[in-house]
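Let's practice the habit of predicting before peeking. Look at the sequence and jot down your guess about where helices and strands might fall. Then scroll down.
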Amino acid sequence: MRRVFCLGVLLTPIIHREQTSLKALKGKSFAVDGNIELHQFLALIRKHDGSLFTDNQGHVTSHLIGLLTRTARLVGEYGMTLIFVFDGRFHPLKRATMEERRRAREKAEVEYASAIRRGDAASAWSKAVMTGRVTGEVLQDAKRLLTLMGLPWVDAPEDAEAQASQMALKGEVWAVGGKDYDSLLYGAPILVRYLTITGTEYIPSQRRSRKLLPEIISLEQNLEILGITREQLVDLAILIGTDFDPGIKGIGPKKALALVRKYGRMEQIPQEIREKLPGNFDEIREVFLRPNTVQDYKLTFSKPDIDGLVRFLVEERGFNKERVEHAATHLLESYRKHSDTKLGAWLA
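Done guessing? Here is the structure:
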């Protein structure tokens, strides 16, 4: 049975991660999974009763608060170059996962409403964080904000992680910034998790927060430690379960690693194990090894439009003007520092 909201493959028990700091990542460039960022903001930036922040017209603003605040600090204080990548259509093989997430979200919405009626704020919050939806309006507002901030964004044809990983493979960015290990399956040379300012993550199932520090994960280093190839890592993931298949019950990361080490390739794993997988496991393998990505995009960094930010966030969405101008100042300072620097020089 797949875990509800199991975003990506669960490799934590076998993956080597190096904790670092935002200071150590100063000046680095990242292709950021934009949808994951928006989901995080919609989950965590809420009122005491778990409801989202909105303007006086009912437009959701929680994601804009997070996107403005976190991005301005990462760019302004830490000199990072951020390129946001957004999901396109989900792959047909991902339909079951998307349906599972929809059902879980709808269940959480019902439980949230029930908790509100009971006056149980703690339960309401734990359910509310699972109800965020990246609607078309949420997505368009995010892209509009990024453009006004002078930051580029790219629409992926399918998974944002696949597109971001290909950009890292091409050397357009130093690393992928995301939470899931899927980027490693897509070939990202370096994955950096937890590019956050607050350094905490809320765990709904446990109703608690945990402290987070940024983590650097090197694909090459991990493959060497594990003694396998990237192709074998993909086979290992399929055995565990990915967004495209449920995996095999009873097989976790360590057991899957032992199997690919012993047999080398999925086709050589004993039939009694392999027959428990979907018959199209080779198609799933191809999704990771040869992902659908786009090449004709432009990465244009521009001067932050401070007047435009004020019009959008203050006049339209009811933000505090001083707060918006403060964030804009961080962005403008960073832009001025790099105005004579080509993007390639930012990748060190």
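How did you do? The longest helix spans residues 95-118.
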